[in-house]
């Protein structure tokens, strides 16, 4: 039986992007670039449903 690790890689990539966007958001907030802060906050909020859907799809796959 061969296992598929695509879901794990997708979740790891989403987590990496979440960390990067959060770091950029804090950096932009520190330098008072509030429009960029809201953009990165929105990108973080978009990543959550993507991770949730990837997790649900990975959970239902029988290995």
Protein architecture, described:
- The protein is mainly alpha-helical.
- It has one domain.
- The chain has two helices and no strands.
- Helix 1 runs antiparallel to helix 2.
- It is elongated, with a radius of gyration of 15 Å.
Set down the secondary structure blueprint.
Layout: H1 6-30, H2 34-60
Helix pairs in contact: 1-2
Summarize the structure.
The protein has 63 residues and is mainly alpha-helical. The protein has helices at 6-30, 34-60. The protein has one domain (6-58).
Query: Structural class from helices and strands?
Result: mainly alpha
Question: Could you tell me how far the N terminus lies from the C terminus, measured between alpha carbons in angstroms?
Answer: 8 Å
Shape: elongated
Poorly predicted runs are: none
The largest sheet, given as strand count, sense and whether it forms a barrel, is: none
Count the strands?
0
User: What percent of residues are in strands?
Assistant: under 5%
- Radius of gyration (CA) equals 15 Å
Helix content: over 70%
Total count of helical runs of at least 4 residues: 2
Number of domains: 1
Order of helices and strands: HH
């Amino acid at each position: 039986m061969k296992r598929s690790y695509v879901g794990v890689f997708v979740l790891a990539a989403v987590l990496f992007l979440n960390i990067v966007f959060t770091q950029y958001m804090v950096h932009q907030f520190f330098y008072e670039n509030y429009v960029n802060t809201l953009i990165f906050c929105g990108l973080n909020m978009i990543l959550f449903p993507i991770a949730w859907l990837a997790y649900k799809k990975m959970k239902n796959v029988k290995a």
